[in-house]
User: What shape does this take?
Amino acid sequence: MNFHEILDGIKNQAAKTSPLGGTVKFLLGEQIIYIDGSGEENIVSEDDVEANCVISTSLEDMGKMMSGDLNPMMATMMGKMKIKGDMGLAMKLQSLI
Assistant: This one.
């Protein structure tokens, strides 16, 4: 999965999911996906701004999580995904991935 496929997948899921109640930034190598779920809907962009929760992983591992080949919890336990900030928001992301 390339970056734009991942971005489109997250945009589609975010539109179907209730607002997260905060902001999340995915750092995928040099590329960024920012989700602002603090309003009435989740807004997905490529903005590099401060977020309540920052998740760092590789583009390859994010693609595996999106396709179901890698469990996000296992990715975290294996050190393939790092989470900083609001863990409650991170738990809500399972519906987007």
